[in-house]
Design brief:
Elements: H1 5-12, E1 30-36, E2 39-46, H2 51-68, E3 74-81, E4 100-107, H3 115-128, E5 133-137, H4 145-148, E6 157-161, E7 164-168, E8 170-172, E9 175-179, H5 194-206, E10 213-219, H6 226-234, E11 239-244, H7 248-262, E12 270-280, H8 297-305, E13 309-315, H9 317-325, H10 336-357
Helix pairs in contact: 1-2, 3-10, 5-6, 7-8
Bound molecules: adenosine-5'-triphosphate.
The site of adenosine-5'-triphosphate has 20 residues, from α3, β12, β13 and α9.
Family: Belongs to the Mrp/NBP35 ATP-binding proteins family.
Protein name: Iron-sulfur cluster carrier protein
Function: Binds and transfers iron-sulfur (Fe-S) clusters to target apoproteins. Can hydrolyze ATP.
Length: 378
């Protein structure tokens, strides 16, 4: 006996997949029906890999065909799972900026965890590796990058580029720097709404003569407020790095930070988590480690959220001192601090490359200088 394909389709029109209003023929879930002797093969596609929903669909199909067409039908159901394609998922938003290949936002949920310190050290390490680097200090609440690069008394000059006046970033330690702090008075609390901050930052990016950059690091304000939403939605951010200490309160805020980037209307890929102040090491006992804020918290968080762990930075007096005198500690050669930042920076570069590779070719922004990073050699 051979069954009629139309009868099978008619039977399948009486059932729908869980969560879908239309019947499975109308919704396009039924891909194909093949009948051969007493066999009926139904190919369907689903958007969920959930086992119990797959099982239920299979059971419903078999039951319906046997009830409505023939109880002798030997029904086989093939289920193909197709994840829904999210529009604009992980695409770079905003206008691409000529000459700037990657914008990496450095964020933290909690304040004071060392986000600016990490940004400054990442920047000088990238520059040492041969990348062209810029830092844009977007921390409107407490712009500390000018201090960390010893340029707090400087102001960007105006230069003429193709007949237009542009701001020339200040240069220090091989890194181009612009800060919102150059334009606000010291001791003045800045009260800005998100769109205002985003507009000011847009100017610092688009109306500045950055030249060619492999990486622009964006030092974000702490927290997860509307400022962040505006910045993320209006600037073409390649990816974000979240800095946290291993302390429970900082980790809880870092989790919120990651969630913010992964939010439906933001979708900035998270390149990973960096743990700062992982352990304290006194200068006179360099082999001793004291886990003041807890042990391994950020690594566990990264594992839990299934995002890369980019590395850890110890709490050492010289990092603070180096920041205060405006010469990031990673510039001190042949030190464990230099090695720690090199490791983290390599991881940031390789995660950026991976992220760019997973974009459609038209959107992909490639890094051209691969110096110092084995992970990017192809
Ligand atoms: N690993 C470290 N070892 C020693 N001191 C550190 C370390 N990381 C940061 N610091 C010090 O901690 C203080 C806060 O760091 P930083 O300003 O980088 O934090 P932040 O997260 O950017 O702060 P904010 O929330 O104000 O933006 C600074 O004095 C800095 O020098």
């Amino acid at each position: 006996m051979k069954f009629n394909k139309q009868d099978i389709l008619k039977a399948l029109e009486t059932i729908s997949l869980a969560g879908e209003g239309a019947n499975m023929v109308e919704s396009g879930a039924v891909l194909n029906v093949i009948t051969f002797a007493d066999e009926v093969i139904v190919d369907i596609k689903m958007t969920t890999p959930a086992m119990h929903i797959k099982k239920r669909a299979e059971k419903d199909i078999i039951k319906t065909i046997q009830e409505r067409v023939s109880k002798d039908a030997q029904v086989k159901v093939n289920i193909k799972v197709e994840a829904p394609t999210k529009e604009n998922a992980n695409l770079i938003k905003g206008k691409a900026i000529p000459g700037i290949k990657n914008i990496v936002a450095v964020a933290s949920g909690k304040g004071g965890v060392g986000k600016s310190t990490v940004t400054a050290n990442l920047a000088v390490t990238l520059a040492k590796m041969g990348f062209k680097v810029g830092v844009l200090d977007a921390d409107i609440y407490g712009p500390s990058i000018p201090l960390m690069f010893d340029v707090f008394n400087e102001r960007p000059l105006s230069v003429n580029v193709d007949g237009k006046s542009k701001m020339k970033p200040v240069e220090s330690h091989g890194v181009k720097v612009l800060s919102i702090g150059f334009f606000t008075k010291p001791n003045q609390a800045v009260i800005w709404r998100g769109p205002m901050a985003a507009k000011a930052l847009n100017q610092l990016i688009f109306d500045a003569a950055w030249g060619e950059l492999d990486f622009m690091l964006l030092d974000l304000p702490p927290g997860t407020g509307d400022i962040h939403l505006s910045i993320m939605q209006s600037l073409p951010i390649t990816g974000a790095v979240v800095v946290s200490t291993p302390q429970t309160v900082a980790l809880a805020d870092a989790r919120k930070g990651v969630a913010m980037f992964q939010q439906e209307n933001i979708q900035v890929p998270v390149l990973g988590v960096i743990e700062n102040m992982s352990y304290f090491t006194p200068a006179e006992l360099p082999d001793n480690k004291y886990y003041i804020f807890g042990n391994g918290g950020a690594k566990n968080l990264a594992e839990d959220l299934e995002i890369p762990f980019l590395g850890e930075v110890p709490l050492v007096q010289s990092i603070r001192e180096a920041g205060d005198i405006g010469r990031p500690a990673a510039l001190q050669t042949a030190t464990p601090i230099e090695a720690a930042f090199e490791e983290i920076t390599k991881n940031v570069v390789s995660e950026t490359v991976k992220r760019n590779d997973s974009l459609p070719p038209t959107e992909a922004i490639k890094i051209t200088t691969m110096a110092g990073c084995s992970a990017v050699k192809k």
